[in-house]
Structure to design on (279 residues):
């Protein structure tokens, strides 16, 4: 992998392609990024179909959790979804906020924004909108959101520290987030880290779980809670395209774990200082 800008362009290109794929293709790969597997079905994503507000046209099978299920969304809230894709989590959140609430989806892939807007028009929602932008510098004013959700997206961003800093900026004092993401324990092989498909597939860009949790604390959040954790199994027929036999054996013998986690944290109601440091 190269520098941050090159990584972002690669992810944008990949997710433009993924926007045109069917759900089954995306679920049998790692977050939709190539290398489909015949070994298992639904490698990462959870089943949304039983949740109120679910719309199958918006479900691309790209997530690694159900953050809206844990997000404590209330009627009238303003909710922002980071990496909103075709709008799946936004439409679930819209059911939670009701007619008096507001939902904003942010995605930096034009093809995803186009797909999400088409879904919104079909559903005739007036309180759901999608904005193209970078979640390291969201096109949103300070202190806007009551709740921020995201589903398997931060792992795609090179500068995760900047994302958490911007989440803090955009949340209202007392607001909170619930984010599902991919993290690792142990050291991934270099060939996985350098593989573009595995980066776009939410694995190569993942960081250590302890480092991820530390970034949340560093950026001023409190009441940090691990709401859910599950192990992710990457099938051999995907790994065989990246690792040779010796590397695969070492990978399996090593203390390496890939996990989907859902994390909750709050922005303090008051910073305890005279200046407006919460904005």
């Amino acid at each position: 992998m190269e520098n941050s800008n090159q990584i972002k362009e690669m992810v944008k290109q990949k997710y433009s392609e993924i926007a045109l794929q069917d759900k089954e293709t995306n679920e049998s790969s790692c977050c939709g990024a190539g290398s489909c597997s015949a070994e298992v079905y639904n490698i990462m994503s959870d089943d949304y179909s039983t949740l109120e507000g679910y719309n199958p046209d918006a479900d691309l099978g790209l997530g690694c959790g159900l953050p809206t299920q844990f997000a404590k969304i209330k009627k009238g809230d303003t909710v922002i979804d980071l990496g909103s894709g075709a709008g799946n989590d936004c439409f679930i959140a819209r059911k939670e906020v009701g007619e008096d609430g507001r939902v904003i989806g942010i995605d930096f892939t034009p093809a995803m924004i186009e797909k999400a807007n088409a879904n919104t028009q079909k559903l005739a929602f007036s309180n759901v909108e999608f904005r193209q932008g970078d979640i390291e510098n969201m096109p949103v004013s300070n202190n806007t959101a009551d709740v921020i959700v995201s589903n398997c997206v931060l792992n795609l961003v090179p500068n995760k520290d900047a994302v958490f800093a911007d989440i803090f900026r955009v949340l209202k004092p007392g607001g909170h987030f619930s984010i599902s993401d991919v993290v690792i324990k142990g050291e991934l092989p270099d060939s996985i880290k350098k593989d573009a498909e595995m980066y776009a597939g939410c694995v190569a860009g993942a960081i250590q779980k302890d480092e991820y949790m530390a970034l949340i604390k560093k950026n001023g959040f409190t009441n940090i809670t691990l709401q859910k954790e599950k192990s992710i199994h990457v099938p051999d027929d995907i790994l065989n395209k990246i690792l040779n036999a010796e590397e695969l054996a070492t990978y399996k013998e090593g203390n390496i774990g890939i996990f989907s986690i859902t994390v909750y944290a709050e922005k303090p109601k008051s910073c305890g200082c005279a200046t407006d440091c919460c904005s």
